[in-house]
Design a protein that fits this description.
The protein is mainly beta. The protein is built from five helices and 33 strands. The chain is globular.
Length: about 625
């Protein structure tokens, strides 16, 4: 194994100084077999190398979800979308918009980096992201890398979720959508978006509200109130140069359950602000350059109360502020697409009620290349990260794709990755139940992936991916006490290793009588550190999609997950949702459509902890006006 790693690094070093002169004119034939099953905008990705590439030239296991997919499933938040992706596992802790735990191929949530247009929205206290608080209307596409992406993105040994927002453009000066949905228990989703272009100026505006009093089957105190605003402005300085400004503001309030048997209730409030300014230009026909400045604020207010006395049991307020700069140069020459760049972040995490602050500075340089040699693609990558808190990291990767036939593609990928500890793990809990550990080290991983994609079987697209992730310096919880009569104190330590290995299978048919069948399965075996935790073991997805191309669309989607260990959980049922969209009126200027969604239509149970049961069957309906 060591010789393989040395060979990979040697090849990369050699390649950076020797550029092949082979020129390959990429043509549309390599996409033909995929276009029978997918839309054009699903066949190019930017997240793997931070440069737009055909998905047939990407070695990682990547899934793309488009705005059209999101609309068809009537998703409300990012959680709803990710719950449909094979290889991504969601541990629901309530209803719509609730706090959740998430995993990619059995990873911990802290191992998965989440970005919006390349800007990290992962909080610094525990490296998590409140996925249930991210609305979906302004999303153009979501690209999910399953497995380490550290050679491109830094701390991300479990994977990357990159949200790409809708463009500041339109076919006329004013385009837009107004949408209203309403369902049981005062559950409503109200959205407005407008976008367009006038001369050199383009814009996109979104405003939305999500609310619920708590769905049936849940405990009391599961209400949610979420308000969001998003703006993107773009100015074309010239044909090849533009400046773009974005702002996302989000404010949420969530009840996380009332537990009368424990005389306890908890509440969560968040306030998020993301702003960025980018400059993008083409220096020549072969060279593009971009620079991005960003500011991210994440404020979390977490409150625990004793029900009988209304006394505060725990009140914690954290605020993260991160300033970042990213720059990259893309050079397309002959058989090569070379991307080189640098990232810098200066972040602080403040425990406001304790007037205590932690700070971290990070900078990095990275480079990768996509070499296209006829049917073969070779994708080496390398990144160096420096942090003032946790030291330095070198993250190499090597990927290969090979088109055996016009309808069959092979993939192989090996990568080194890492994940930084959250700054909050070094803080003592003010109630004496957690002892901070300032000596924590980053977790590291070697990952190996292989895969095949084919449509050799008539009318059927099939994708099979195998993976093995070997984790070092695994972070685990450790309990101790100096007094046998006292409450146990816990802390986080680096202890042992973990192996995650498994296989993913996905399939999709060509439309037959306007109906498409799709299915997916993921099987994981996790051993070593944390194997006693609630971790996913296998998942199944199945669905039917109908589209007559005129006035009627429908999606029936079923999801099942089996967990390793639980807290009196119950997960013996598929959860099926159905969404039906009917066009009511359409003209050249505008259209009106109605939709009806049934959630958990067979009233199944699927939860890992008895304290957090899933919602029972519930219905919502809405109307959408597009202009």
């Amino acid at each position: 194994m060591k010789s393989i790693k040395i060979l990979m690094l040697s090849f990369f070093t050699f390649h950076m100084f020797f550029l092949s002169s082979t020129v390959y004119a990429q043509n549309e034939e390599e996409k033909k077999f995929l276009l029978m099953y997918f839309k054009e905008d699903e066949l190019e990705v930017i997240s793997a190398t931070r440069s737009l590439q055909s998905i047939t030239r990407v070695a990682e296991n990547v899934t793309v979800i488009t705005a059209e997919d999101i609309e068809l499933m009537n998703a409300h938040t990012l959680t709803d979308v990710l719950n449909t992706v094979t290889g991504v596992q969601i541990d629901w802790r309530g209803g719509i918009g609730s706090t959740i735990l998430y995993s990619v191929q059995g990873s911990e949530f802290r191992h998965v980096a989440v970005f919006i247009d390349g800007v990290s929205i992962t909080n610094m206290s525990d490296n998590g992201t409140q996925l249930g608080f991210i609305p979906v209307q302004f999303i153009e596409r979501i690209e999910i890398i399953k497995g380490p992406a550290s050679s491109t993105w830094g701390s991300s040994l479990g994977g990357v979720i990159n949200i790409i927002t809708k463009p500041a453009a339109g076919i006329k000066t004013l385009n837009g959508t107004m949408s209203v949905s309403y369902g049981e228990e005062n559950t409503g989703d109200f959205r407005f978006e407008a976008h367009g272009k006038k001369d050199r100026f383009g814009y996109y505006l979104y405003a939305g509200r999500l609310q619920s009093d708590g769905l049936n089957g849940l405990r009391p105190n599961n209400d949610i109130s979420e308000n969001s605003l998003f703006t993107k402005l773009k100015y074309d300085v010239s044909k090849d140069t533009n400046v773009q400004f974005t702002v996302l503001y989000n404010k949420d309030s969530l009840g996380q359950g009332e537990f009368r048997e424990y005389d306890y209730a908890d509440f969560n409030k968040t306030e998020n602000l993301l702003s960025s300014l980018s400059f993008n230009t083409s220096l020549s026909k072969e060279i593009d350059f971009s620079i991005l400045l960003s500011k991210v604020k994440i404020k979390t207010d977490y409150l625990e109360k004793i029900l009988s006395t209304n006394e505060e049991l725990n009140h914690s307020v954290y605020e993260d502020n991160t300033y970042g700069v990213s720059a990259k140069l893309t050079w397309k020459h002959g058989a090569h697409t070379i991307v080189a760049g640098t990232d810098y972040e200066d972040g602080t995490s403040e425990a406001i009620l304790r007037d205590d602050e932690k700070r971290i500075r990070k900078w990095s340089i990275f480079a990768n290349d996509t070499i296209i040699l006829d049917k073969l693609s070779i994708i080496p990558g390398l990144r160096y990260d420096n942090t003032d808190q946790f030291g330095d990291f070198i993250s190499p990767s090597m990927g290969i794709t090979y088109k055996v036939f016009d309808n069959t593609l092979l993939r192989a990928y090996i990568a080194r990755g890492f994940s930084l500890p959250g700054l909050g793990w070094s803080w003592d809990n003010e109630f004496g139940m957690y002892k901070g550990n300032p000596e924590l080290k980053a977790e590291k991983i070697w990952s190996y992936q292989i895969g095949v994609e084919t449509s050799a079987l008539k009318y059927l697209w099939l994708k099979i991916s195998g993976f093995r992730h070997d984790l070092e310096n695994a972070m685990v919880g450790d309990f101790f006490t100096d007094d046998p009569d006292a409450i146990l104190i816990w802390t986080m330590i680096n202890k042992g290793s973990q192996r995650r290995q498994g296989i993913e299978i996905e399939m999709k048919t060509m439309p037959v009588y306007n109906t498409t069948l799709f299915a997916g399965a993921a099987f994981m075996h996790i051993s070593g550190a944390n194997e006693e935790s609630t971790l996913p073991k296998y998942t199944y997805d199945i669905g039917l999609q109908y589209d007559d191309g005129k006035s009627l669309k429908a999606l029936l989607k079923g999801h099942y997950i089996w967990w390793m260990n639980s807290y009196n959980g119950d997960y013996n049922s598929f959860i099926f949702d159905i969404n039906i969209i009917k066009n009511l009126y359409k003209s050249k200027e505008y259209s009106i459509e109605g939709f009806l969604t049934g959630h958990n239509i067979f009233n199944g149970t699927q939860y890992t902890a008895e304290l957090y049961k899933n919602p029972k069957r519930w219905i919502e309906a809405g109307i959408r006006f597009k202009f």
